[in-house]
Amino acid sequence: MLAAVLHDFNDLVLEEVPTPEPGDGEVLVRIRSCGFCATDYKAIKGIRRNVTFPLIPGHEPSGVVAAVGRGVRHFKEGDEVICQPSGYCGVCRYCREGNTHYCEHAYTTGGDGPENVRPGAFAEYMVTGEECLFHKPENISFDAAALTEPLSGAWKGVVQKSEIRVGDDVVVIGTGGIGLLCLMVAKAAGAGRLIAVDASAYARNNARTIGGATHVIDALSGDVTRQVYDIIPDGPDLVIEAAGPIAAVKQMVDLRRRGTKWNVFGITTHEKFELDGGHTHFLEGRMDASFGTTPLAMQNAVKLMERGLVDPSLIVSHRFPLEKIHDAVAAMGEKERNKVIVYVP
What is the CA 298 to chain-centroid distance, rounded? Predict the structure, then answer.
């Protein structure tokens, strides 16, 4: 089969490799679409160093079941499926608490996090465990299905962790791909005023036209806190940081009023920010954070798409066939892009 194999940083090679065979409890999936995550790009470019070579990246796939291993009961050849990248054992204490993304025996297909990293989906075929598959509803495109994992992350952060309520005034800082999905989930959940903050005019326009933001603010335009409070005099009910830089986290801290919920969602670097202990005490807000996904989050993301409440394919700005993987890598480096999809015709 054809696959994009990362042999070293900045050494991604399209080559023929043996087509894998599914083992017990495993399924061989013929890939149709795969989202290009920023973590894939960082691995390819050497920005992320926790990589073991060789690696086939790509961890946001959808496709069709090509073969099943012994013991697989719920999927058969020809089924259209959505793949969760993180596999789990189901029996450790974290799995039995419902926190499968903490699993002590986790693996990932093409992604990062666990030590056990298996070949991913920038390829014609990929093997994964049956527990990682979801049936794709007929009314969902393969591109939309491939974005189930990032959409599930947005649902997990906005709905499950921060418990958005109907009518809540929400601020989302950072409206790239994941920020757009947070906006879309918040809108579907009944947000009142929905404010997007971003330094990019391109991103702010997308926040309005795709994410459903009612207001947008240039992150570089001056006193963002004052501008937010001009729109929401009583202050936001919920602030989601979906940007990544530490400056966005500090901005989120400044936006709090009494009772504000805030979610440290986008930052993954080990940087520090300060809190005034007494001020935080008397504000009586609640800080949450969210990473990864779970079967619960994936299933709810599928429901959002199937019911027509969120269409993540709207955030796709570029599509490339697997044979043009290097063009896809180049597109990931562009400032004006949202989600990049790699597809297999």
Answer: 11
Write the pLDDT tens digit of every residue in 292-329: 999 999 999 999 999 999 999 999 999 999 999 999 99
Check whether 269 has a pLDDT greater than 90. Answer: no
- Domain spans, the chain: 2-146+311-343, 154-289
- pTM for the model: 0.96
CB contact set of 77 (below 8 Å; sequence gap of 6+): 65, 66, 67, 68
Instruction: Quote the CA–CA distance of 178 and 24 in Å, as a whole number.
Output: 35
Q: What is the pLDDT of residues 113-151, one digit of tens each?
A: 899 999 999 999 999 999 999 999 999 999 999 999 999
Q: What CATH code would you report for 2-146+311-343?
A: 3.90.180.10
Q: Can you tell me the distance from the alpha carbon of 150 to that of 84, in angstroms, rounded to the nearest whole number?
A: 10
User: Do residues 238 and 168 lie in contact, with contact meaning Cβ atoms separated by under 8 Å?
Assistant: yes
CA 74 vs CA 25, 34, 70, 210, 257: distances in Å:
10, 23, 12, 35, 49
Contact 195, 228 (CB under 8 A): yes
- Report the CATH fold assignment for 154-289: Rossmann fold (3.40.50)
